Amino acid sequence: MDEDILQDFLVEAGELYENLNEQLVELEHNPLDASLLNAIFRSFHTIKGGAGFIGVTPLIELCHRAENLFDKIRNGERQYSSENADVILQAYDSVGVMLHSLQLGERVLEDVDPVLLAALDAAVKGTEMPVSAVAPASAASVKLKLPDGVDMDADISDEEFEALLNQRDQLITHEPTTKPVATTSPTAVPAGLDPDGEISEAEFEAMLASLNAGKTAQESALDAARAVGVLPTPSAVVEEVVAPVAKLPAPVKPNKLMNKPSEEVESTVRVDTKRLDEIMNLVGELVLVRNRLLNLRSTLQNEEIAAAVANLDHVTMDLQASVMKTRMQPVKKVFGRFPRVIRDLARKLGKEIDLEMLGEETDLDKNLVEALADPLVHLVRNAVDHGVEMPEDRIKAGKPRIGKLVLAAQQEGDHILLTITDDGKGMDAALLRRKAVEKGLVDEVTAAQLDDKAAFDLILLPGFSTKTEITDVSGRGVGMDVVKSTITKLNGGIDIYSVMGEGTRFNIRVPLTLAILPTLMVGIGAFNYAIPLTAVQEIFDYDAAQTNKIDGRMMVRLRVRSIPLYFMREWLSPSTHGGDLDHSKVVIVNVGMAVIGLIVDHVRGQEEVVIKPLGTKLQGAKGYAGATITGDGRIALILDLPGMMSRF
Question: What is the model's pTM?
Fold first, then answer.
């Protein structure tokens, strides 16, 4: 198969596949939505057409059966019941596996599971048999001859479709197939085709004309075959085709769920992500040069140079923003999987949940989109399993029978705020404290001192679980700690808010990109260090009179709570220990679930830095996330606060 055509097919099929995920789940809530039914039907039809053009038979067979079922549903002959939805969703999953295999370079796909095909056939006939209850289809089924001139848009039977596949195989291979198809000369080369295997000029012109007319790849191939005499023209079989075509519903107006116009596809260019990463790295180097020039501008005292540097500063900022946009993807890439996740899990647990998604078009760096997928899945599953109550319990509590889960995303400055909110039973802070003590995660004295906000954070500890029984959904005490560690690695933070009987909300803040990091530059001894700005809460002057020791630890009183203090000199620059602290600063930061104060010698200010990995000999050192070059041309180490705290 032609690799360029295959890649174009994979791009189009991938977009259709992503849309189908949301459409199929939404259809279960609105089974009579005609525009939604037509959009799903067209998606399967388009994927089938593209697969037919490149000769992927298993994908054709599967999409054809799904298409048949939706044709029955949109004509009112079948209902989109939960049983039919289960079968269709399994077919959808199989389509995804095939597309993924093609993306990985496989060119010969395994046949579709005959049990699944039989289940789809049963659904078309109205028996609605579950996949697990259907016996495998017989491989010795008889294929009938395709009536001459049948149009692909007509309501053809499965046997007619199989025969069409055989004729397509003859067009591609010029060899007779093993399936019984009636032809005048099985070994002869069809008229109009080159004996050496290349398409003729007439066939090519027919294909080109059909494509320009807006027809699908499969329709174009059929037109080409008719042009060279392999298949009869539609005019010869008008009487046979009119009746099936009359059954098709009138065209409907396209909506937001339908395919995008071809003009949008033609205006885009595919670029390898490695090339985007290279460009981003070069922009990062330019940012470092810009920072250096900005620092030199004040010492040169030259107006022309100052003006040129200012202009370079603006251009660099615009270039940085533009390159970042090329790496951006909508959060919908992550949110799109959750309708199916929630649907399947709620069905398994016997719960009823409505999902609302807000801010799906909010853009995020592609690396963050990929990294956030697993943490958000854990949070959503946690909300469905632990948060939303059973329907009968919700009714007793005076709530609607159907629970509500809201996923939202919005940009806040140079960060993205993601929220997962449920209207479930909320969290009991007293229960969380008791469970943490029972599992040995905290002692009784510490647990008693925790306020409700800190008690909610206990669920993020490794090994914490309120479940008494282990299931395949939860109970092992893993999952939420993975969420916390992943968000921390992304230089982000997570906050939990909950009210008993009303629900729970998780707030996640992550930077727009990982390539360029906003930091607070601090000085300790003769060296500069960068602290991720997302962890910094506030800064104030060090005052020894406001400190005291508790259990041997230096503490400072900050409004209503005591914050432990750490002298950065003791760890980062021991040779300067014992120096003057009169002009020192206290930087209050979040480290995991703790809030601590770091005593530094100087605060240089905010600076965007480009993260550079440490050398191989330093990569295992705890407390360092990387290095960068500051505006004055010196090297500064970027601190990894959780790793640093493990060394104190």
Answer: 0.56
